[in-house]
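Thread title: Can someone regenerate the structure for this chain?

I was given the following input by a collaborator and told the matching structure tokens would be attached. They weren't. Posting the sequence so someone can regenerate them.
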Amino acid sequence: MAKYSRGTIKDFPGFNANDDAEALRKAMKGLGTDEDTIMKILTARSNAQRQQISLAFKTLFGRDLVDDLKSELSGKLEKAIVALMTPSSLYDAYELKHAVKGAGTCENVLIEILASRNSAEINHIKKVYREEYGSELEGDITGDTSGYFERMLVVLVQANRDPDSRVDDALVDQDAQDLFKAGELKWGTDEEKFITILGTRSVSHLRKVFDKYMTISGYQVEESIDRETSGHLEKLLLAIVKSVRSVPGYFAETLYHAMKGAGTDDCTLIRVMVSRSEVDLLDVRKEYRKHYGKSLLQAIKGDTSGDYRNTLLLVCGGDDE
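Best answer:
Regenerated them for you:
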């Protein structure tokens, strides 16, 4: 897996797993819970270090750290802390499994993860998913979705996007024309053309296709998708286009919508903050500031409360005003 360096959380210097395990045990022992200590330790350690703390906790006390945290915390704070404690290699697989498990499907989770991860990341998710749950991600998705939405997801799960090599301008031109013919020029929409091109071409190729599409049609490709498709398929195609343009930009928009209007989509807020905290959250913050006129930190402050808010603010890692 690629090593990222644009996260807000990095390995803690001078890390000592036993010291942290003892401090956490003390914070949870006896009457009352010292949430402040729990938050400060777990948001200042990388995920790999948190796993070492978990191991040390079991070795020293014969207790499961996550179980203890669950019994001491509740509500949104518990969700955020448990998310931080989930091994990063497992987190996406865990979220996808819970999106297709039981009655109903959480399509937004499938869209967000599968539209934004690169081929290497998706192959890794599939492997972990198989090992952890004893089933294939593709099979679980096809058992739970349908139509063109299902087909687009299956293409993404194949993780066969062309490698980012030299861009063939003739193919760029052809793809842009094909998308135009499949949408704006056609009575009805040729969804299969959108699925094939958006699901298999390289990122650098697609960026040029989007520019060419604008030249040919006078529209951004997002506008055409908005007009020509609807429902979950529309959301998925738009998420792919936005991720191709800029993954941090896509996540900044996702966070904005999670906190916009009445009520907050805390599941999305937690998932994005935690999953990007060691990847590109600094870039997400920058995009948020650029597009929404205030910093991500200020948005979280205004939209959350209590220890839950403080946890997210620590993960966010700073202001961009």
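The CA atoms of residues 172 and 209 lie 5 Å apart.
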